[in-house]
Design a protein that fits this description.
Elements (H helix, E strand, L loop, with lengths): L6 E8 L2 E2 L1 H12 L5 E7 L3 H8 L5 E6 L8 H15 L3 E5 L2 H12 L6 E4 L1 E5 L2 E8 L4 E8 L4 E5 L14 E4 L31 E5 L10 H10 L2 E4 L1 H5 L20 E5 L5 H4 L7 E6 L12 E4 L2 H15 L3
Parallel strand pairs: 1-3, 1-5, 3-4, 4-11, 5-10, 6-10, 12-13, 12-14, 14-15, 15-16
Antiparallel strand pairs: 1-2, 7-8, 8-9
The structure holds flavin-adenine dinucleotide (FAD).
The site of flavin-adenine dinucleotide has 28 residues, from α6, α7, β15 and α8.
Length: 326
């Protein structure tokens, strides 16, 4: 990218707050050799979020507010981002690799007849080419993927890679004055049904307690829920567990599930297969309980406990309850 080009960062909001994965993009934009960093904050009643983003390294923050943007919709978010692109003329648009980001990035690129880069760990623009550094073969290798630079180039970045941005001198907030009345919104929001399994979204959780096939059965999985409750964590699972129907799919961590980066990941009866590892290996501290001393998860774990989880976990729960005052 030319040194003058602006990088536009898309800030998704949920329940009136910026998503952590989107805020990470500000750190990524600042780390690139780009010129100005602009951000578009999308949601309903999110002017305070825009002020916060202005203090996190965005030179200009475009505020895209509308009651219809309270919840994600492709058409609403696309209208907001297109409006911010028209206002900022960016060279690159960065989007978080969230579920909605995976929807938006190819949509925006394809609507211009362009290619896009997804799930990147790094990116750069060189001589009319956009290069994304991304994991391939279930994280066993890292590849440079090259596409023609677009106008702008749309890039989604893997969540949990860049960390949260530092506080910087505040930029300015500009209202976009969106009129979504003229936008065809083909999807109607009917209602929200809250999934059980913790108050925090798995990808935002500071503590994740993940159970694997070693737990034994859907009934025995209660021990994982009890441990999560005792430690104040969010419940996750391996694909073996979700495929068996012991837990819902949205709790799955890994290549075909959520990408987590908690302060503490506790894997119980989890072997640590590479497809699971790609979704949790960036956790700050990994603790594993497994009866097989050769289980691959022990190669990633800071703390490993070899033994039968059905003996160890009840002791752990009792100790946690004692320490946390019942
Ligand atoms: C294309 C593809 C995509 C995939 N995507 C994903 C993904 O996104 N996420 C994912 O998780 N997997 C994914 N998988 C599956 C993955 O390869 C593994 O099969 C899966 O992660 C294994 O889950 P597990 O660790 O629960 O089970 P297992 O590998 O069966 O491990 C169970 C572990 O429990 C231990 N154990 C058993 N009993 C006890 C006990 N009583 N006490 C203590 N330990 C005990 C065993 O020693 C063992 O290590 C994918 C596979 C493919 C092919």
């Amino acid at each position: 990218m030319s040194s003058e080009a602006t990088t536009l960062v898309v800030i998704e909001t949920s329940a009136g707050a910026a998503r952590d994965q989107s805020l990470e993009l500000l750190a990524a934009a600042r780390a690139s050799d780009a010129g100005d960093v602009a951000a578009v904050v999308i949601g309903a009643g999110v002017s305070e979020v825009a002020q916060r983003v202005a203090g996190l390294g965005a030179d200009t923050v475009y505020l895209a507010e509308d009651p219809a943007l309270e919840r994600y919709s492709t058409a609403g978010y696309v209208a907001a981002i297109e409006s911010a692109i028209a206002a900022s003329d960016p060279g690159v648009v960065l989007i978080a690799g969230t579920t909605s980001g995976r929807d938006l990035t190819p949509y925006l690129a394809a609507s211009r007849g362009q290619e896009c880069l997804t799930d990147c760990l790094e990116f750069r623009i060189e001589e009319g080419q956009a290069i994304g550094v991304r994991p391939v073969y279930q994280g066993k290798m890292i590849a440079d993927v090259t596409i023609p630079a677009g106008d702008p180039t749309f890039i989604s970045l893997r969540a949990g890679v860049f960390g949260q941005p530092a506080e910087l001198v505040g930029g300015e907030v500009v209202e976009l004055g969106l009129d979504l009345g003229a936008v065809d919104m083909p999807v109607e929001f009917v209602g929200l049904s809250q999934a059980k399994g913790g108050d925090t979204a798995l990808e935002d959780a500071d503590i994740v307690v993940a159970g694997g096939r070693g737990v034994g059965s859907a009934e025995q999985y209660q021990i994982i829920l009890d441990l999560a409750q005792a430690i104040g964590g969010t419940v996750g699972a391996t694909r073996a567990v979700t495929d068996l129907g012991w837990r819902p799919h949205h709790e799955q961590i890994g290549q075909t599930g959520a990408n987590v980066r908690p302060k503490l990941y506790l894997g119980v009866g989890v072997s640590g297969a590479v497809q699971h590892a790609v979704g949790m290996q960036n956790s700050e501290t990994i603790v594993a309980i497994n009866r097989d001393p050769d289980a691959p998860i022990f190669r990633m774990a800071e703390i490993g406990v070899v033994g039968d989880l059905h003996e160890i976990v009840p002791h752990l729960i009792a100790k946690l309850e004692e320490v946390r005052g019942g």
